[in-house]
Amino acid sequence: AGNIFVLSSTNSAIIINKFASDKSLVWTRNYTNDLDITFGGIVADAAGYIYISGSEYIGADKDIFLMKYNANGKIIYHRNYTNPGFNDDAKGIALDSLENIYIAGTVNDGNSDDIWLGKYDITGNLTWFQVYNSSGTNSDYGYRSEEHTSELQSH
To answer: N or C: more exposed end of the chain, with fewer CB within 10 A?
Structure first.
């Protein structure tokens, strides 16, 4: 069995706990933001890197973030997606088989909340994003992202 990661938060900190398969605590890390911070999700890859999505205030705006930690709990990078003048929120996070990172969340365009899906490469660079606003509603929310593959089987 593998490691277990537990995220918790206060208004100004995210706490990351790593437990070994025997349930002993390996390490705890804190990331703080004096204004406000919330986590969206966590995922680990086969090499033991940990990816965390969430939202934090940078100045007056709440922005989506992506953080990467190594297996020892050292932060590798911290990236923000900024939508100037508006508050945005990240929820789900997933990895694909090529180690691309996907974050699902919500962005505000001033009139409505819209679903946001962003794709990051392994080094944390945003390679593309898509915003979706369904007709007839001002409240669209993205909560989860997941890679889905299927194989056709012949009989």
So the answer is: C
CB–CB of 34/27 below 8 Å?
A: no
6-21 mean pLDDT: 89
- What is the SS3 assignment for 64? strand
Q: Around Cβ 90, how many Cβ atoms within 10 Å?
A: 30
Written in H, E and C, the secondary structure of 67-130 is EEECCCCCEEEEEEECCCCCCCEEEEEEECCCCCEEEEEEEECCCCEEEEEEEECCCCCEEEEE
- pLDDT tens for each residue of 77-129: 999 988 787 888 888 899 998 989 999 888 887 777 788 889 999 999 999 98
Phi, psi dihedral angles at 99 (to 5 degrees): 70, 25
Taking the CB of residue 131, how many other CB atoms lie within 10 A of it? 15
